Amino acid sequence: MSRRRGVIPVVAMSVWLLLAFFGPAVAQPAADRIAALRHGVNITGWFRFPASRDPAVLRAWLSDTAMRDLHSAGFSFVRLAVDPILLDEAGIRSALADSVRRLQRAGLAVVVSLHPVNWHLETVPEDRARLRAAWQVLGLDLRPLDPELTFPEILNEPVFPNDPAGWQVLQHQVLAVIRVSLPGNTVVLTGQDWGSIGGLLAMVPETDPNVVYSFHFYDPAELTALAAYRPGLDQSALARLPYPADGPACEAAAAQAADAPTSGLMRYYCTLHWDRARIEAAIGKAAGWARDHHATLLAGEFGASARLNRSARLAWLRDVRTISEAAGIGWALWGYDDVMGFAVSRPPGARPMLDRDVLAALGLAVPR
After folding, report:
1. What is the dihedral of CA 62, 65, 68, 74, to 10 degrees?
2. Which domain does 68 fall in, by range?
3. What pLDDT sits at residue 367?
4. In terms of domains, do 139 and 254 share one?
5. Weakest mean pLDDT among 25-34, 63-72, 353-362
6. Which CATH number fits the domain that encloses residue 71?
């Protein structure tokens, strides 16, 4: 999930030089690969912040029944967040590969996404070397798995402020590393600026035809994350914000805030008039980039806090989902075990219940 709000950076390197280096995209992945990335959910705490690093505990974290329920609900894939520091332990790597196999036996494709916690790729060369080395190891671990159902994602939310070219060069290098072990897998790429639409628009597509391009969408953060980027505000008041942001309801909610900073931010949200048309315009920019470059897109993360009033939350989720689908963009809710999605406990029980209203907003069904 994005940790701050990004601004589209100024591209420092000439686009023409980048085009000369990378060239235009030449094709798209096969239709069955794209179909596998239709409806997804992020599993955020299994291999990212594990309570136990015991491989046996990790293997048992999610039950076969819970996996089958995800497939029965209509999910076609999961995006599995992995802290690369765990790849230093052979037992955990084996548990990860076994868990991916189990998800696939349950009928789910798996995006394996690296989510480093303490790396600083923009400024620390050793961390960039760690990223390349992590994929040398993980690529070999994923090689025995079905390439039709296994999607390596190079990195979650690269930052690289004001340096899209720097990130593009590193991503190109890591893609080459992955291709040594996984020549037939569809690889998920992303732009810098925390994987935002702005970061996507700053990218020059790779010549590799077997890739998809991901972006994350949480706009407006005042609504979806209750302005978590500004600690100390009255989040109970922010949770009353309406969506769509019609004037009278917005003003009424802002008037109930406990302090002036919260009230001011809520009124600022009201002036932006967030509604379906505004979301459509934002995602439309990404869709336009994809059309121009004959590229395939994935909305790899979107979600809204369960603390947000239910009406606004469900309406926002429904709009992002339907707008993405209308543009031919697959999506993945953040997340299965996160407050922005289903908020299933960590670890989940034997058969966790999925919120039927959230499922309905996603166009999915309650598992049988």
Report:
1. -90
2. 26-219+275-361
3. 87
4. no
5. 25-34
6. 3.20.20.80
Tokens 């500004």, residue located: 230
Q: Which residues of 331-354 are buried (b: 16+ CB within 10 A; e: fewer)?
A: bbbbbbbbbbbbbbebbbeeebeb
Distance CA 319, CA 362 (A): 9
Which among 166, 180, 171, 199 is positioned nearest to 297, based on CA atoms?
199
Separation between Cα atoms, residue 126 and residue 132, nearest integer Å: 10
Model pLDDT, residue 28: 86
Q: Pull the structure tokens for residue 192.
A: 């810098």
Over the stretch 133-150, which tens digit does the pLDDT of each residue have? 999 999 999 999 999 999
**Both tokens of residue 347?**
């670890």
Nearest Cα to Cα of residue 156 among 215, 97, 224: 215
Are 279 and 268 in the same domain?
no
Q: Phi, psi at residue 267, to the nearest 5°?
A: -65, -35
Structural domain includes residue 6: no
Asked if the structure places residue 114 within a domain, the reply is yes
Position 27 scores a pLDDT of 65
- Residue 246, pLDDT above cutoff 90: no
pLDDT one-digit tens code per residue, 272-308: 999 999 999 999 999 999 999 999 999 999 999 999 9
Q: Which long-range contacts (CB under 8 A, 24 or more apart) does 346-349 make?
A: 346/45, 346/49, 346/51, 347/51, 347/61, 347/62, 348/61, 348/62, 348/63, 348/66
Does one domain contain both 189 and 238? no
Give domain status of residue 194, yes or no. yes
> Could you tell me if residue 338 is inside a domain?
yes
User: Distance between CA 131 and CA 259 in Å, rounded?
Assistant: 44
What pTM was estimated for this model as a whole? 0.92
Q: Do 211 and 315 reside in the same domain of the chain?
A: yes
